[in-house]
């Protein structure tokens, strides 16, 4: 916070214009971020996903690959993100019969000067959108919910764990 009690935004310069943050003076550290989301579907749709019987193919495998690809393209999608050389991106998808959902978790890792939160968040979002694209013909009521950062570690700021 500034002395006036307002938050200072690192992506805004003194004249109010958007800018990319200069990370040249930061130390290279190991950084990780984990994000998650839920894709709520009809029970019959969840059964089709389990059976791998949708016309477009294996929903979970394709969504996993899309999430990995999306994480690698984050700086192309989000204007002020730095292009990063990720050391790892893992996307896990699990089926939850109780909620009739696909739970998506992505973890991004890097040894670098800036964090990987946006890459993890992009991975889960692209995975969820891919699921929607693959099932929309049979389930237009699909809901993508709770896109959130679950954990962040590394860098100068304290580690973060969501509640």
What can you tell me about this protein's structure?
- The protein contains 4 helices and 5 strands, in the order βαααββαββ.
- The protein is of the alpha+beta class and 163 residues long.
- The protein has one domain (29-161): Alpha-Beta Plaits, CATH 3.30.70.
- The chain has a 5-stranded antiparallel sheet, covered by helices on one side.
- The longest helix is centred in the C-terminal third of the chain and has 19 residues, at 117-135.
- Mean pLDDT is 90; it is low at 1-5.
* Percentage of residues in helical conformation: 25-40%
Largest sheet: 5 strands, antiparallel
Q: What's the architecture in CATH terms?
A: 2-Layer Sandwich
How many domain units? 1
CATH superfamily: Molybdopterin cofactor biosynthesis C (MoaC) domain
Radius of gyration: 18 Å
Mean pLDDT: 90
Our measurement of the CA-to-CA distance between the termini, rounded to an integer number of angstroms, reads 24 Å
Give the strand order of the largest sheet, numbering strands 1, 2, ... along the chain: 2-3-1-4-5
Overall structural class, as computed from helix and strand content, comes to alpha+beta
* Text of the CATH class: Alpha Beta
């Amino acid at each position: 916070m500034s002395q006036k009690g307002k938050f200072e935004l690192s992506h805004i310069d003194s004249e109010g214009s958007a800018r990319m943050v200069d990370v040249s003076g930061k130390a290279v550290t190991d950084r990780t971020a984990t994000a998650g989301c839920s894709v709520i579907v009809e029970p019959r749709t969840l059964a089709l996903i389990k059976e791998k019987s949708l016309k477009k193919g294996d929903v979970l495998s394709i969504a996993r690959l899309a999430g990995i690809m999306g994480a690698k393209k984050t700086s192309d999608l989000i204007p002020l993100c730095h292009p990063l050389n990720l050391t790892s991106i893992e996307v896990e998808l699990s089926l939850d019969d109780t909620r009739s959902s696909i739970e998506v978790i992505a973890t991004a890792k890097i040894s670098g000067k800036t964090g990987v939160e946006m890459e993890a968040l992009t991975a889960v979002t692209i995975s969820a959108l891919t699921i929607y694209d693959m099932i929309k013909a049979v389930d237009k009521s699909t809901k993508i919910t709770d896109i959130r950062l679950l954990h962040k570690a590394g860098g100068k700021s304290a580690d973060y764990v969501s509640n």
